[in-house]
Design a protein that fits this description.
The chain has three helices and three strands; from the N terminus they run H-E-E-H-E-H. By secondary structure, it is α+β, with helices and mostly antiparallel strands. The relative contact order is 0.28.
Length: about 70
């Protein structure tokens, strides 16, 4: 059986934890941080988040060797 190809876009966005959850970084923390965004919104984007379990299977299929 041939090797599976990794979707490189997904590999850059998702990491799989030891427990099998799929973790990602929240969007919106790259630019325009001096204005337009409230401090509470910026603070909330510091932490990573987990993909919803119903969508986690699709993300894991895109990165087969990250498990």
């Amino acid at each position: 059986m041939p090797k599976l190809k990794t979707k490189k876009a997904a590999a850059k966005r998702f990491k799989v934890t030891a427990g099998g959850k799929v973790k990602y970084k929240k969007a919106g923390k790259r630019h325009q941080l001096g204005h337009r965004k409230r401090a509470c919104k910026k603070l909330g984007k510091r932490k990573g988040a987990f993909v919803h379990p119903s969508s986690a299977g699709h993300a894991k299929a895109c990165i087969p060797y990250a498990l």
